[in-house]
Amino acid sequence: MGDGVRYWVSCVMVPADQQVPLAVAAEEFGFEGVTYPDHPVMPEQISSPYPGGTVPWAADSDWPDVWVLIAAAAARTQRLRFATNVFVLPARHPLVVARAVATAAWVSGGRVVLGIGVGWMAEESAALGEDFRTRGRRTDEAIAVLRGALAGGPTEHHGEFFDFPPLHVRPTSPTPVPIWVGGESEAALRRAARADGWITEHPVERTEGWLTRIREHRAAAGLDDDGYEVAVACWRPPTDADLDAFTRLGVGHVKVQPWQWHDGDRSTLATKLAALERFAEQHLR
Predict the structure, then answer these.
(1) In the predicted model, what is the mean pLDDT of the chain?
(2) Count of CA atoms in the C-beta half-sphere (13 A) of 124
């Protein structure tokens, strides 16, 4: 592919009725995949500090269920991959998540990446009856549950938060589902080091220190970097310096929103489609 990296379309803050047409266009223009954000609910009032500063969306913005959305987009595409960026894992029981992920992977022919995070919004956790303070430990245990449940065959688990006898989660994915972990805290980096990849909303120039820590954690655990995936954001047209940094840091996946570089109205589907086509002409062909 043109620049030697695989470009994904970030669909955060995209209206629900534009999501599937964007996915169809992304495949047509040669993008690797699309990434979908997740929040199960959106409180009217949020006092929790947002990681990027001010919450950049309105309380009544669209947050479609990612697994329903992936199934709908998969039915209209053949090659395109789908990643959650990121799924708030501790907000749901991991067996329910495993069934949704496995079904989406089965429907899509194995084109799913499960990107997960612990969540940042205490109000969301409270609305769902979850303990915000234990979300990190529950996420670690939930990942172990997911690994077993997605592997096929009977699985059982006996832990601090989840306990169940041997059972099956069907259907199964035709290929293993990669788990990418988001976050930049030390706990998140340790968690990401034990996963199949790391996914972040930050651009490449801010990620070198975090990537160093992930690789240190992997080395300490006896893990090499073979097959480890890194996905970063690029919130400007990629420059030669960006491309050099992607190669130097081992970044294989880059998320973009080309319509954000448009001077006029960015809200329409037509603007987004035209921006995707321009980007593809410059970087994917």
Answers:
(1) 95
(2) 19
